[in-house]
Design a protein that fits this description.
Strand order of the largest sheet of chain B: 1-4
Oligomer: heterodimer
Strand content of chain A: 15-25%
Helix content of chain B: 25-40%
Number of domains of chain B: 1
Order of helices and strands of chain B: EHEEHEHHH
Number of strands of chain A: 18
Largest sheet of chain B: 2 strands, antiparallel
Bound molecules: flavin-adenine dinucleotide, iron/sulfur cluster
Shape of chain A: globular
Shape of chain B: globular
Radius of gyration of chain A: 23 Å
Number of strands of chain B: 4
Distance between the termini of chain A: 26 Å
CATH architecture of one domain in chain A: Alpha-Beta Complex
Mean pLDDT of chain A: 93
């Protein structure tokens, strides 16, 4: 593969690539590229690599910094890693059984194939995996900070132009196809716009401003951009995933609680309905803990961890112990207060619907990867956190990058001659009079009050969903009619619009799914209804349309 | 959230300004960066491990300010403690080959 020429910019330096785009003025930055990748988590990095390998000129713009941004960088992610062979089909079948019947085995199979291939690539490229006792490399785990730092180097080495701290605000379209995006360089306060023959949305999920690892930038921006371009979303009702964390901390990592027992505030053991003490918080028992947390404070202690395991946990998941060490707590001996952190679509499964096998959205020139895409094909109604999502980020990143570069090659030589129009509305161009007294922090708090509390979103019911929906309609009206900002403040106003829109889609889908399935728990509709063994699609920004769920299944070609 | 940029340790390289995914710091000419947007901090601890001289301290409280003095952080040897646990040194990555997470996953089943 030859090294693609860098788009209108000089050679990439090892570190701090955006330094290369030095400018002394606030003049807008204009670039042209074959493929523009929005988002610099694992899926965006893999998309950029795949497109560059095809010879495309690639620009990657991230809201934060490629290497530390997104949900993977601060975490330690287990992948779904199944070596080739007969066991693969069985592994897929077994995993499918847990997806509430909504996953698609063809996508699952091709995902494990591609993810495995790329994990092997990582090892060949020099990422240092640990060894098992028999000397074989253990490639099924990627340590977030190291993995993403490694990916940054690889992406720069492939000749990709990386723009850090360049959040995208909106897509551009010539009426027929997506022709680029524009945004703001938030550290220099200047606008940028990039004309591209294809755009990959790799902007991650929406965590509704919950303070979980990596989530500040994960505000559903890609969902809003895609919906404005006419794409469908799917599975947005699956936002009922929560993970345990020490109280008031960002450490939403469930694994250590496998060895926890749980207590009430007075130190008495937390008991389940059968009078047994609740332990192992990452399985069936999570529901008991959620109920108890609605009643009052809950405490935990990792007292089932043997000394050898304590050592592995400390060395293998060191960030889980940072809050305890700083608070002066020994979690294996002391009780510590816990909470359940909402994870929106990050560990939920909803997102932009995939229309084609190369991760096209159905909108010409627009591709999607990772958490920005619906992960129902992979994991249905249950969370793909803990293995599937990271493999999906690798595989879908790769496919979307290939899909986008193929599209770029095919598109007209004069692609850049057409007139492009920006598609962004809410948060950028209010439909009514701009109102200066509209506070983004207050809007986000009001949205959170509907989609975060356990009693509304972990345990759902039709009446509550309805009331929440009405509140969100009125918030949306404020956002759409009156929210406006200038310069760098547009990032926050656009995030506010994206969070509000994502919440609306989530509640509309949750109301439409008139049953319980996976992480969608309707107290008024307990149990699966076979009539709902299908996808719920939503589209539209101001007026929301619930789509024919079968469409998505028809669209899957493999 | 991020609480301390130690002026006595900082060598003013501005790496933290660039790598913080939440754009929390502002560079200041001839001085250590300042914490300009503390409330945007996502408590990911990543600035700490990128800092070449362990001059940053992120408190464990993710919601709101958590007052702590530089003297206490020094005394409890907390500067750079997360980097040491990972095997990162002077802002350089390292340690993945010693990650025992596979043993945890086997035990978790
Ligand atoms: C604590 C935690 C632990 C996890 N552990 C596991 C695990 O063990 N196994 C597993 O399979 N999965 C795990 N996951 C899920 C996994 O991290 C995600 O599936 C994965 O990070 C998705 O990759 P992504 O690139 O699609 O999104 P992200 O990594 O979230 O990256 C999205 C990127 O988009 C950027 N962005 C957002 N908006 C814009 C915009 N407007 N313009 C430009 N850029 C933008 C962000 O800055 C970010 O860099 C975990 C998640 C969390 C939170
Ligand atoms: S990374 Fe460390 S040394 Fe460099 S400016 Fe930031 S605090 Fe100072
Ligand atoms: S902890 Fe993370 S978000 Fe906070 S200042 Fe450091 S790098 Fe930035």
């Amino acid at each position: 593969m030859s090294r693609p020429p860098s788009p209108t910019l000089p050679e990439n330096s090892e570190r701090m690539s955006s330094d290369r785009v030095k400018s002394t003025s606030n003049d807008p930055l204009h670039l042209q590229a074959d493929v523009l990748v929005l988002g610099g988590g694992p899926s965006g990095a893999w998309a950029a690599l795949a497109a560059a390998e095809d010879g495309a000129r690639v620009v990657l713009a991230d809201k934060g910094y490629l290497g530390t941004s997104g949900a993977t960088a601060p975490s330690n992610t287990g992948t779904w890693c199944v070596p080739p062979g007969e066991n693969r089909a069985q592994a897929v079948e077994r995993r499918w059984q847990r997806t509430g019947g909504l996953a698609d085995q063809r996508w699952m199979l091709r995902c494990v194939d591609q993810a495995y291939e790329n994990l092997v690539k990582l090892s060949e490229w020099g990422y240092l995996f640990p060894q098992e006792d028999d000397g074989r490399l253990y490639i099924a785990n990627l340590r977030g900070p190291d993995y993403m730092r490694f990916m940054r180097r690889r992406v720069l080495k492939a000749g990709v132009t990386v723009l850090d701290h360049h959040p995208a605000l909106e897509l551009l379209s010539n009426g027929d196809a997506i022709t680029g995006a524009s945004g703001v360089d938030r550290q220099r306060n200047r606008d940028w716009s990039i004309e591209a023959k294809a755009v990959v949305l790799a902007t991650g999920g929406c965590a509704f401003h919950e303070r979980i690892l990596g989530a500040t930038g994960l505000t559903g921006d890609g969902y809003l951009m895609a919906a404005e371009a006419g794409a469908h979303l799917s599975g947005m009702e699956f936002t009922g995933k929560y993970t345990l964390a020490p109280y008031e901390t960002s450490l939403n990592k469930g694994l250590p609680y496998r060895w926890a027992t749980f207590y009430r505030e007075d130190g008495s053991p937390l008991l389940d309905a059968n009078g047994e003490q609740v332990s192992n918080g990452i399985g069936e028992r999570e529901r008991d803990i959620a109920k108890a947390l609605i009643d009052g404070p809950v405490f935990a202690r990792l007292d089932h961890a043997e000394p050898a395991l304590q050592d592995w946990l400390r060395r293998g998941q060191p960030n889980c112990f940072v809050p305890h060490d700083r608070a002066g707590i020994d979690p294996f001996k002391d009780l510590f207060r816990i909470t359940l952190r909402a994870e929106g679509t990050v560990r939920g499964t909803g997102g932009i619907m995939l229309a084609t096998a190369d991760c096209g959205t159905g909108v010409p020139g627009l591709y999607v990867a990772g958490d920005a895409a619906s992960r129902e094909n992979m994991t249905g109604a249950v969370s793909g956190g803990g293995a599937v999502n990271s493999s999906w980020a690798i595989a879908s990143g790769w496919w979307s990058g290939k899909g986008a570069s193929t599209h770029a090659r095919k598109s007209a030589r004069n692609a850049f001659r057409s007139i492009s129009k920006p598609l962004g509305e809410a948060g950028l161009r209010p439909a009514g009079n701009a109102r200066a007294n509209l506070r983004t922090a207050e809007i986000i708090e009001a949205v959170r009050a509907e989609v975060i509390p356990l009693e509304k979103n972990y345990f759902r019911d039709g009446t509550t969903l309805h009331t929440s929906s009405e509140r969100l309609e009125s918030l949306w009206n404020d956002v759409r009619q009156h929210l406006h900002a200038e310069g760098v403040d547009r990032v926050r106003s656009r995030e506010t619009a994206s969070i509000t829109a994502s919440a609306r889609w989530s509640l509309a889908s949750a109301l439409a799914r008139n049953e319980s399935r996976g992480m969608h728990r309707r107290g008024d509709r307990p149990g699966n209804d076979p009539a709902f063994a299908r996808r719920i699609l939503v589209s539209g920004v101001d007026a929301i349309t619930i789509g024919e769920a079968q469409i998505s299944r028809e669209g899957i070609a493999s | 959230m991020i609480e301390i940029v130690s002026a006595s340790r900082c060598i003013e390289c501005d790496i933290c300004v660039k790598v913080c995914p939440a754009n929390v710091f502002d560079a200041v000419p001839d001085s250590a960066p300042i914490i300009a947007r503390q409330d945007d901090c996502q408590t990911c601890y990543l600035c700490e491990i990128y800092c070449p001289v362990d001059a940053l301290y992120v408190a464990h409280r993710a919601e709101g300010h958590f007052p702590i003095t530089e003297a206490e952080v020094e005394e409890r040897n907390l500067f750079g403690s997360y980097a040491r646990a990972l095997g990162w040194k002077r802002g350089k990555a390292g340690g993945t080959e010693h990650d025992p997470t596979h043993r945890i996953r086997v035990a978790a089943v």
